[in-house]
Specification:
six-stranded mixed beta sheet, 6 helices, 26% strand, globular, binds fe (ii) ion
Length: 293
C-alpha cells in the first residue's frame, strides 16, 4: 500500500517586514489585507502542528498544491525553502505554485530559483512535470500567473493542456495510478475573480483521458467534486483547507488528507483520511471515505 499525503496553502507566517520599495505594486493591497485580516487566520503554530502530524504518519510521498507565499516578497521564498526542507526532500515532496507565489511580475522566477527542485520532473523537466513514484505517477501543473489588482484567477493554457493529455494517455498505458496536482480547483463555488479561467478545457482533457485522482488547494475548503472521465468513469477532485488556517477563523480549520492507495489498473482502491486541527490545537482524524474501490 502506498500512502500519499496532501496539504496546501500554508501561507507562511509571520510575513517578513517589507521594504517600502517592495510595496509599490499589487503587494500593497495584499500587505494591508495581511495586517488587517489574514495574519489572524494563518498561524505558524497551526501549520507546524499540521506538518508534524503529517510527518508522523510517514507517508510515501507528500504533495503541496501551492500558496506557500502571501505577497511574494523575496524573503518569503527563502522562508518557503526552509519550510519545504523541513517537510522533506525534493525527492519526497512535490510542489505546484499557487497564485500567491506569483503575486507580482517576477515572483515565479523567484519561486523557481528557491523551490525549483520541488517542481522538477524525473527527467529534470519543469512545469508541467511528471514524477513516477510507483504505483503513482504525479503530474504537476501550474495555474499561477501574475494577475491585476483584485484578481486571483489562474490559467493552464493550451501548451500545458496538450502536455497533460499526452502524459495521461501514456501513463494509462503504463498502468500507473495517475495523480494530477493543481492549485486552482476545476470545480468551485468561488466568485469569478478567483476561478481557473480554462477549467472547462481541463475537464475536457480529464473526460477524454481520465485520471485516478486530482488534488487542489486555493479555495481553503475541504472539497470533493467528481469529474466525468472516459466511458462513464468518475475522477475525484479533492481540495483541502489551508494548512495554517486557525480554528474558529474564516473558512475551514487547517487539515490535510492522506490517501491509501493499492491495487492494479482497473481495480484500484483509494481511501481518503482527513486529519485536522480542533479548537484545542490537537490534530485528529476527522473523516474517512473510500474514493475508489
Ligand atoms: Fe491560498
Ligand atoms: Fe490561491
Amino acid at each position: 500500500m502506498f500512502t500519499l499525503a496532501h496539504l496546501s496553502d500554508p501561507h507562511l507566517a509571520p510575513l517578513p517586514e517589507p521594504r517600502w520599495s517592495e510595496l509599490l505594486n499589487k503587494r500593497i493591497t495584499g500587505y494591508i489585507n495581511w495586517r488587517r485580516n489574514r495574519r489572524f487566520v494563518h498561524a505558524r503554530a497551526v501549520l507546524d502542528a499540521i506538518a508534524a502530524d503529517l510527518k508522523a504518519q510517514t507517508p510515501g510521498h507528500i504533495a503541496c498544491t501551492g500558496d506557500i507565499a502571501n505577497i511574494a516578497l523575496p524573503a518569503e521564498f527563502r522562508h518557503g525553502r526552509a519550510w519545504l526542507q523541513s517537510l522533506g526532500t525534493a525527492q519526497d515532496v512535490s510542489l505546484v505554485p499557487g497564485n500567491h507565489d506569483a503575486y507580482v511580475r517576477g515572483a515565479l522566477a523567484l519561486a523557481s530559483r528557491a523551490w525549483g527542485d520541488y517542481m522538477l520532473g524525473d527527467r529534470g523537466d519543469g512545469l508541467p512535470y511528471l514524477r513516477r513514484r510507483s504505483p503513482l505517477a504525479l503530474i504537476g501543473l501550474s495555474t499561477a500567473m501574475p494577475t491585476a489588482w483584485g484578481l486571483a484567477t489562474g490559467r493552464l493554457g493550451g501548451e500545458q493542456l496538450t502536455a497533460l493529455a499526452r502524459m495521461l494517455a501514456k501513463l494509462k498505458g503504463e498502468g500507473l495510478f495517475r495523480v494530477v496536482l493543481i492549485h486552482h480547483p476545476p470545480v468551485s463555488r468561488a466568485k469569478s475573480h478567483k476561478l481557473l479561467d480554462d477549467a472547462w478545457a481541463l475537464k475536457r482533457v480529464i473526460a477524454a483521458q481520465g485520471a485516478e485522482l486530482l488534488l487542489h488547494g486555493h479555495d481553503h475548503l475541504a472539497m470533493l467534486n467528481w469529474l466525468a472521465g472516459p466511458d462513464g468513469t468518475r475522477v475525484p477532485a479533492v481540495g483541502v483547507p489551508s494548512a495554517s488556517n486557525a480554528p474558529g477563523r474564516a473558512r475551514n480549520a487547517a487539515a490535510y488528507n492522506l490517501y491509501r492507495i493499492e491495487g492494479t489498473p482497473g481495480a484500484w482502491r483509494c481511501e481518503m483520511i482527513s486529519r485536522g486541527i480542533d479548537a484545542s490545537g490537537a490534530v485528529k482524524e476527522q473523516r474517512r471515505a473510500m474514493l475508489i474501490g
